[in-house]
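Troubleshooting: if your tokenizer reports a length mismatch, compare your output against this known-good record of 179 residues.
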Amino acid sequence: MKKFLLFVSLILLISSAFAFEEEDFDLYDQIETLEGQFFNLTLPSQAICNAAANKAKRYASCGCPYVWGGTSCGCGGSGGMDCSGIVYTSFREAGWSGITRVTTTQINQGVRCPACSPSNPGACKPGDLLFYCFGGTNCPNHVVMAVGGGKVAECSRPGQPCAIRTPYSQSYYACRSMC
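Known-good structure output:
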């Protein structure tokens, strides 16, 4: 009987070690919040954002092809970028290494910019990021960078080169200012 009770006690102890309680998920939310605060400690100057916007504008104007996961473009056909890749590469080349690589982490960087939106693109500063959710549960799933003059640079989908355009009004998710 003692062996049986010891066995049951061990099973209960082991199973409780792998059980997740509601507090565990609260801790996860707190960790995400702290990550966002850390990212915001390392924001670049507006001069860096202006330089990043100019680099994104160059990539979006030179025929850089869309390549999922891509972060390099030789302009003229070699390499390619996806939506978060043009953001990542432009900021890094402008001198800020604090930008993360993918859309779902870029949304946690910077600060909210409620004035900048597709309905008010003139309020967007160069380097602001506009995020979109075009369906699914992993939102946001698209990002564009404001480049000034109410325009954005983006790499949207396979078969389409990166381009400068007016921000989309549908499926808008949020704006984050990096500077």
